[in-house]
Design a protein that fits this description.
Layout lengths: L8 E4 L3 H12 L8 E4 L6 H6 L3 E3 L2 H7 L2 E4 L6 H8 L8 E4 L6 H7 L5 E6 L9 E7 L5 H11 L3 E5 L5 H9 L1 H18 L4 H22 L3 H8 L5 H11 L2 H20 L2
Parallel strand pairs: 1-2, 1-4, 2-3, 4-5, 5-6, 7-8
Antiparallel strand pairs: 6-7
């Protein structure tokens, strides 16, 4: 198996998530830009890869010819046709990593040559700033060596955890889509401060730092979120009055419903 620094990495599909993974890996110095090759049917999405000094092509099979680790970053509905196209170029030395939401390992293995080493990952957009949350599961022919290589590579993008495939759709609803929920919450926090007289740019900056600090405390202390929340609340203080308003708005139930809805949608995508 090649060391990370010698890897030639391919992307079949050059959308937002592919770019995020590539940027995270490059920023961490795991792979040279010259060793990354991305394909897409038009130039529209390849420009960002070219800006990163990566190589590009319009031929999906060319990616397989030059790269041993290939991320399948096309949309779920596009994947069957792409797998049919690239299958003749797939060898036992390739490691294929699907980024397509909801497409199961069983489906991938059925559409690829027998014995292909396949893994599924669910990343999220903060991979681009090396603070992503990436989950992965391996197919029946991908062993410890392939899993260790993938984890070593993607840990450069933030957290990278292996989990049962049955948890991946929930990870999509929690972390993949959850980034958008957090942006919405940050926007609301900032707008609340603007309403009370704070300049917008300052409010946005403080809201972002508040979320960052709260998240770091969860990770660093290991305490349950309810315990951390209680530490902020003093009897009759400002925080408990604010939390009461959030409870009246059913914030917790609404967020839980959002995670459930996104998870169910990921499952639907996998059944197409």
């Amino acid at each position: 198996m090649e060391a990370c620094g010698e890897l030639r990495i391919g992307f079949v599909g050059a959308g937002v998530m592919a770019r995020g993974l590539a940027q995270g890996v490059l920023r961490a110095g795991k792979v040279k830009a010259a060793n990354i090759l991305a394909s897409a049917p038009s130039d529209r999405n390849l420009g960002t890869f070219q800006d990163l000094a990566c190589k590009t092509t319009h031929c999906n099979s060319e990616v397989l010819q030059h790269c041993s680790l290939v991320f399948l970053a096309a949309k779920p509905y596009q994947l069957p046709a792409i797998l049919q196209e690239i299958s003749p170029a797939v060898t036992k030395d390739h490691i294929l990593v699907s980024v397509a939401a909801g497409v199961t390992l069983q489906t991938l293995q059925q559409l690829l040559p027998a014995g292909t080493k396949v893994l599924r990952i669910v990343p999220n957009l903060p991979c681009v700033v090396q603070e992503g949350a990436v989950a992965f599961a391996r197919g029946s022919c991908a062993g410890d060596q392939e899993a260790a290589l993938l984890k070593s590579l993607l840990s450069a993008c933030g957290m990278c955890e292996e989990m049962p495939e049955s948890c991946l759709d929930a990870h999509t609803g929690l972390s993949g889509s959850g980034v958008a929920y957090v942006y919405l919450f940050a926007e609301a926090l900032a707008e609340g401060a603007v309403k009370m007289g704070m300049p917008s740019a300052l409010a946005t900056k403080i809201a972002a730092q508040t979320l960052l600090g709260a998240a770091k405390m969860i990770l660093d202390t290991g305490e349950h979120t309810a315990e951390l929340r209680n530490e902020v609340c003093t009897p009759g203080g400002t925080t408990i009055h604010g939390l009461h308003e959030l409870e009246k708005g059913a914030l917790r139930a609404t967020v839980m419903n959002a995670v459930e809805a996104a998870t169910m949608r990921a499952r639907e995508l996998g059944k197409r």
